[in-house]
Amino acid sequence: MRVGLDVGGTKTDAVAVDAAGDVVARVRLATGYGPDEVVRTVAAAVDELCASGSIPRSAIRSVGIGIPGQVEPGSGLVAHAVNLGVDRLDLRAAAGDRLGVPIGVENDVKAAALGAYTLHGADGAMAYLNVGTGVAAGIVTDGLLLRGARGTAGEVGHISVDPHGPVCRCGQRGCIEAFAGGGAVTERWARPGALPVRDVFDAADAGDPQALRLRAGIALGIASAVRVLVLTADVDAVVLGGGLTALGDRLIDGVRAELATSAEASPFLRSLRLGERVQLLPSGSPAAALGAALIGAAAETEEALTHG
User: Fold this and answer.
1) The pTM is what?
2) Domains by residue range for the chain, with CATH
3) Predicted pLDDT of residue 302
4) Residue 220's closest CA among 265, 185, 172?
5) CA angle centred on 117, ends 174 and 282, rounded to 5°
6) For the CA atoms of the chain, what is the radius of gyration?
7) Distance CA 167, CA 48 (A)
8) How confident is the model at residue 303 (pLDDT cuts 50, 70, 90)?
9) Average pLDDT over residues 88-103
10) Are strands 144-145 and 135-141 parallel, antiparallel or unpaired?
11) Which residue of 18, 184, 187, 219 is most buried, as measured by CB atoms within 10 A?
């Protein structure tokens, strides 16, 4: 049995996966704030999974953790997980001491990309585009994650697509994230509400001029990310996940319309059929936690090879 954890800023999604790759137990619990509380959350999630699925602790062979922030390639060192109150934490060592099993750690979007690839059919090349508070992607080819030289492959959110566009938190103007990131949209909307991006779409449907501009910007940003991912990695599919995808067809229809409009003058872009490559991750999918379980399984294999 392998465990996978998607450690988010407020909630942690945890799954137990059997030898056949099937999810046999799933729990969600609140994520603690700060390094010690993150490690406590990881241990508590394993305990709750075992209890809910009647799984003996001795059956757990590995634990994989997907977490926001930068994860140093080949290590369990997490840096700049700001929403979790973690500046720097060797999560592999800390969680390994608590759990006594091999631990794998990966950036949450990259873990979700691996899980989405598995759910998508585990074939060819696929990009997972996370559209939530921020925008980032993970690319998987033939089952392997593309990390890059410093682990930043897929950071498409900070590609500027309009030098006169809105200021991004990274300091540039017109970044994809500045147009399509939920945090940036909420700041520019600047109206109270539990679900600001949904409020933007509702107001746009009612003809609100500011909401119409913001909704168009979201479609522009996501469509730009799709073009970048297809033109650089030639992925078969770009699977959208993250909080904004709760909008469903209201979101993806706008993205496909923007892709079609931008390709009108280009036979080359039309030939790529970009709109057909865009898909939504099914609502409630455990992609991130499942991907983390696969990361943990890889750590188990690596440890077995290291120790002969």
Assistant:
1) 0.91
2) 2-107 (3.30.420.40), 125-235+243-280 (3.30.420.40)
3) 66
4) 185
5) 75
6) 20
7) 43
8) low
9) 95
10) antiparallel
11) 184
**Measured at the alpha carbon of residue 232, what is the angle toward residues 226 and 234, in degrees to the nearest 5?**
75
Dist CA 292 CA 242 (whole Å): 16
pLDDT for residue 301 is more than 80: no
Q: What is the mean pLDDT of residues 273-302?
A: 91
- Residue 111: both structure tokens together: 């873990």
Task: Concatenate the DSSP letters of all residues of 192-242 into one string.
Answer: --SSHHHHHHHHHHTT-HHHHHHHHHHHHHHHHHHHHHHHHH--SEEEEES
Cα 33 to Cα 89: distance, rounded to the nearest angstrom: 13
Report helix angle 182-189 to 209-233, nearest 10.
Answer: 160
CB 233 within 8 A of CB 226: no
Q: DSSP string of 54-115?
A: T--GGG--EEEEEESSEE-TTS-EEEEEGGGTEEEEEHHHHHHHHH-S-EEEEEHHHHHHHH
Predicted local confidence at residue 308, as pLDDT = 54
Residue bearing tokens 């294999």: 301
Amino acid in position 178:
A
- The mean pLDDT value for 220-234 works out to 97
Residue 4 identity (one-letter amino acid): G
**Local structure of 118: helix, strand or coil:** helix
